[in-house]
Amino acid sequence: MSSSFTAIAGSKRSLHVQVAREIARRILSGQLEQGQVIPGEMTLCEQFGISRTALREAVKLLTSKGLLESKPKIGTKVVDRLNWNFLDPQLLEWMEGLQNAQVFYHQFLGLRKAIEPEACALAARHATAEQRIELSETFQQMCEIADDFDQARWAEVDMHFHRLIFFSTGNDFYLPFGNVLATIFMSFIHHSSKDGGVCINEHRAIYDAIMAGNADKARAASQFLLQEEKHRLPSEVA
């Protein structure tokens, strides 16, 4: 399995991020396997055409995301995927376009099923007046787009609707999930909303329940929306 990289071109400010992305994508795709020791500093610096400083910054970034670890006399190796920080928005961005990325859409839906219904219930209880106004404005935009469908615009507004729900829970531990939505939801929704499949009535049920302060109905409406058959994801990985 080849571990050779090609030279990176870009500004000095972003160079280490570009290098980190290339290494991360090799790890996420399985080209660099768990437990595998990556090439040494001199080799990587030569392949990428960068300085040791830039490479060390890239390795430091990947270490913070749980992808790499460095040990004396061993080198830098790929960490077991149990330690990968899949909730890191930057890591999710780096997954884009990978051959196995479709699998993550199904896993992402599974995560949403586990946490989003309760987020809707909490939003029904705790959303502020300002948040309810913003949710109302956002839902109105969804209705307008559903009548004159624009997939790119729908993905943007739909993402904002669900993200706002997480931000309206009154629970800071839900905030990172709202940020995760902003990263992966846009790609996810392009599959789910093909041919105008927007589930506007299901979104309306969530909206109505939150605005009425009915936590039980909000939870149930979210569970109904998140059923597998309502999302047009690739069947080969279902």
Automatic annotation (TrEMBL):
Taking every annotated instance into account, which residue ranges of this chain make up the domain HTH gntR-type?
Answer: 13-81
Question: Known PROSITE patterns for this protein?
Answer: HTH_GNTR
Q: Name one GO molecular function term.
A: DNA-binding transcription factor activity
Instruction: State the UniProt keywords alphabetically.
Output: DNA-binding, Transcription, Transcription regulation
Is Transcription tagged as a keyword?
yes
- Keyword field contains Lipid biosynthesis: no
Q: Which domain of life is it from?
A: Bacteria
The cross-references to InterPro entries, in alphabetical order and at most eight, read: GntR_C, TF_FadR/GntR_C, Tscrpt_reg_HTH_GntR, WH-like_DNA-bd_sf, WH_DNA-bd_sf
Q: From the Swiss-Prot or TrEMBL record, give the protein name.
A: Putative transcriptional regulator
Species the sequence originates in: Photobacterium gaetbulicola Gung47
